[in-house]
Amino acid sequence: MNKKIEDAINAQINAELWSAYLYLSMGTNFRAKGLDGIANWFEVQFKEEQDHAMILYKYMQSRGARVVLKPIAKVETEWKSPLEAFEDTLAHEQKVTAMIHNINKLAIEAKDYATQNRMVWFIDEQVEEEEEAEKNLSAVKMIGDNPLGLFMFDKELGAREYHQASALK
């Protein structure tokens, strides 16, 4: 595997683990505030991000590349509102999308067809991630200061269930 691609995927593994840690922190924040449904949404997101890291981890191993795990940077621990958290979520997912696109670009330049193929799953996944973040952000903007709206939204997000990523099966 090309060294640039190997380095970029190692950085992505770290970013996915950081994402998991961020979403777990968001879940903890909202569970402490009695918004268990919103906490559930972030806790499911935590598990999904761990899956993403493991998909890349296993991919690197299958290609004979070396996985280098680095320290996970500190994450925030407090969000004033679901609005603030979902704004952060969307911005973060957009950053992750750019990183995935960069790996794909490097794979195209190196004519690394296997990595290009693996990145297709991640590109599709990021479309879903951004769409979900935008949907939740729009909902909390619509809710505004309406406590009944927040109650209903919290209940809706409480129904979200974790499903292991298809690429890990």
Structure description:
There is one protein chain. It is elongated and about 55 Å long. 76% of the residues lie in helices and 0% in strands. The chain is mainly alpha-helical and 169 residues long. The two termini are 24 Å apart. It has helices spanning 3-32, 36-62, 82-109, 113-143, 147-158. The chain contains five helices and no strands.
Give a short summary of the structure:
This protein is mostly helical. It is 76% helix and 0% strand. It is elongated, with a radius of gyration of 17 Å.
What are the defining features of this structure?
mainly alpha; 76% helix; 169 residues; 5 helices
Beta-strand segment tally: 0
What is the end-to-end distance?
24 Å
Number of helices: 5
Structural class: mainly alpha
Characterize the main sheet: none
Helix content: over 70%
Instruction: Give Rg in angstroms.
Output: 17 Å
The rough form would be described as: elongated
Task: Please give the structural blueprint.
Blueprint lengths: L2 H30 L3 H27 L19 H28 L3 H31 L3 H12 L11
Helix pairs in contact: 1-2, 1-3, 2-5, 3-4
